[in-house]
Amino acid sequence: MTTILEDGNGLFSTHVALDDVNFAIKNEMRTESELSKDSLLEIIGDGNGFSSCVILVTCDWSIPSIDLPKKLVLKIVSFAHIKRLIDNAKSKGFCKVKSKDEEKMAEHFLISILAMHNQEINFYEILSSANAENILTPKVYFSQKFDETNRCKGFIGMEFLEGIGIRHSYENCTVQEFQPILKSIASIQALSFSVPNEDFKRIEDESVYAKSVEAMMSGEGMKGCFEHTRLRDTEQFTDIVERIQGYGTKILDFKKAFNLNKVLGKYYQKRLRSRGPLEANILWTKESNGQFTALKVIDYQTAHTGNPAEDLVRFLTSTLSGSDRQAHWEQILETFYEYFLEALGENKAPYSSEELKKSYKLFFPMGGLALLPLFGAAVDMKLESMDKDETEKYKNIVIEKLKCLLEDVEKFYLESSV
Fold first, then answer.
1. Is residue 136 a contact partner of residue 296, using CB atoms and an 8 Å limit?
2. In sequence order, which residues have a C-beta less than 8 Å from that of residue 206 and are 6 or more positions away?
3. Domain-by-domain residue ranges, the chain?
């Protein structure tokens, strides 16, 4: 049986054909118009989507209308980028996985990718029905979920914004630049207390996300991440990587990390939404003064319910320089808490500012190590296409972020072990 892990005969070797897209357009945009074969389709941001093929569509509509978009972004679930990352890691000796284990990984990817795509659509549907002006989500025109009869064709069509770009983990943001994102995260988490229970339950199961992280960080996969990190700068990283590896499975306490609410005695009646990875899923525009402004937050495949610190550990670690994060994380969490209280309105806060800080420190050891792949093969593939000066600049940024990340992984682990 053909699976989504294999190349297809559709658009850009996916399994989705233009006819599939037009069927969804007619059903969900309530129009008889469709994209003609004269529509221009081109891949944008190659390598940005972990499990997606992202296509810019310049629309040629069969029945023109001012109500239809001139351009849209088509995001198709695809395994191609993951395969390139794995092949790249194998070629450099960072991924030494036995064929039997590789088959298990493929089986897990298949299950998790299908579930995460459906989860993202559920999340967009919930956000679209919520009256929350600070949530920076794009407009979604149409989508197609996976089900028992459709295991290969999943996609989302959303608005296209001119003059925007993505900033990667090898770049640094400032605290000022990411305030709109901080407010967006707070607003999304506060929605836990305003959306109907039946909507909330559609994304309540965090098991797919937790199992995905655990699978990625188990066995040879984690060894490869450690080795790749060590080789970034053997002089700086060899000792600390070996020490962290020496803590064994205790530092990779998945049960604790994904049950922090219970650990803290805070099992909320409605568990707070955690958005999932944010690092390369923010759309920015550059102002004339050189500053960046965040316009939209995209990609909610790993949205789940959990502890509020999960988003903050990932967000701060991936966007800020390591030194800025270490110097300002407490102040940033206090600002986030103010945004959260504002978004809650008259609802009672389920946790205090101090409990948020404690959660941050408890989640950081596992959450920080889970980010190591973010600075690994995907970064290497991006840097390979740059000139020497750019490559050196961004490598230094990555090394600085990793240095501070590893320091805090060890620091907060030892503090929690006392």
1. yes
2. 258, 274, 304, 305, 306
3. 11-417
Residue 267 predicted with pLDDT over 70: no
Half-sphere exposure of 314 (CA within 13 A, CB side): 21
Report in angstroms the alpha-carbon separations of 71 from 57, 60, 67, 74. 6, 9, 12, 10
The one-character DSSP state at 348 is P
Least Cα distance to 85 among 131, 127, 51, 53 occurs for 51
| Strand-pair partners of 52 | 77
Tens-digit pLDDT profile for residues 74-120 = 999 988 766 666 666 666 665 555 666 667 666 777 788 888 899 88
Please enumerate, as own/partner, the contacts of 87-90 that have beta carbons within 8 Å and a separation of 24 or more.
88/377, 88/380, 88/381, 89/224, 89/228, 89/376, 89/377
* Cα distance from N-terminal residue to C-terminal residue, the chain: 52
Are 46 and 52 within 8 A, CB to CB? no
Q: Which amino acid, one-letter code, is at 283? A: L
Record the tokens describing residue 265, joined without a space: 């005695």
Tokens of 306: 């959990």
Torsion of CA 244, 249, 250, 254, to 10 degrees: 110
For residues 238-265, average pLDDT = 87
Distance CA 46, CA 34 (A): 26
Return phi, psi of residue 35, to 5°.
Answer: -75, 125
pTM of the predicted structure, to 2 decimals: 0.86
d(CA 49, CA 153): 16
Sorted by sequence, the CB contacts under 8 Å of residue 15 that are 6+ apart come out as 2, 4, 8, 9, 152, 153
Q: Is 189 exposed, middle or buried (0-12, 13-18, 19+ CB in 10 A)?
A: buried
Beta-bridge partners for 158? 73, 140
* Contact (Cβ atoms closer than 8 angstroms) between residue 74 and residue 153: no
Tell me the torsion sign for CA atoms 85, 381, 313, 199: negative
Number of alpha carbons in the 13 Å side-chain half-sphere of residue 275: 30
State how far the Cα of 330 lies from the Cα of 412, in Å rounded to an integer: 14
pLDDT band at 50 (very low <50, low <70, confident <90, very high): low
Cα three-residue angle 38-166-400, rounded to 5 degrees = 150
